[in-house]
Write a structure and sequence with these properties.
The protein is of the alpha+beta class. The protein has a single domain, classed as Transposase IS200-like (Alpha-Beta Plaits). It has 5 helices and 4 strands, in the order E-H-E-E-H-E-H-H-H.
């Protein structure tokens, strides 16, 4: 639409089904690049995609014509298909149902980027459960423990 301008930055966080440690370092970057490609194909701006063995952070610049839920649905569906077609895992690969989506201002881009970039180092000190609950609490998101990811430690 003419004369429509926006700056919308969303960080998605989602996990491997049952929080299994299936995203192996040997091929993880290939999957993250594939996810970035999906985001590009949808006309959105991938800022960074990174994660560890059991979960992923995707930070995007989103245009208002793209629904938050539609983008992450496509990223998850297409990337799980890619992982399965490449034979990266022995059994069938699935992402866990659901995700977190957190919005940021333009001034926060560098901090969020660096946070996502350093996920391996970050998770030497903090569990995914604590990280995820901290995000929910920081953004004052009401949640029901029954509907969180399977956060088995």
């Amino acid at each position: 639409m003419a004369n429509t301008f926006s700056q919308i930055y969303i960080q998605y966080v989602f996990a491997v089904k049952y929080r299994q440690n299936l995203l192996q370092k040997a091929w993880r970057d290939e999957v993250f690049k594939y996810m970035s490609g999906i985001i590009n194909e949808k006309g959105q701006k991938p800022i960074i995609v990174n994660g560890v063995e059991d979960h992923v952070h995707v930070f995007v610049g989103l245009k208002p014509t793209m629904c938050i839920a539609d983008l992450i649905r496509d990223v998850k569906n297409n990337s799980s298909k890619f992982i399965n077609e490449q034979g990266f895992v022995k059994d069938k690969f699935y992402w866990q149902e659901g995700y977190g989506a957190f919005s940021y201002s333009h001034s926060a881009i560098e901090n969020v980027y660096n946070y996502i970039l350093n996920q391996e180092e970050h998770h030497r000190k903090q569990t995914f459960r604590k990280e995820y609950l901290d995000l929910l609490n920081k953004f004052e998101i009401d949640y029901d423990e029954r509907y969180l990811f399977d956060l088995l430690e």
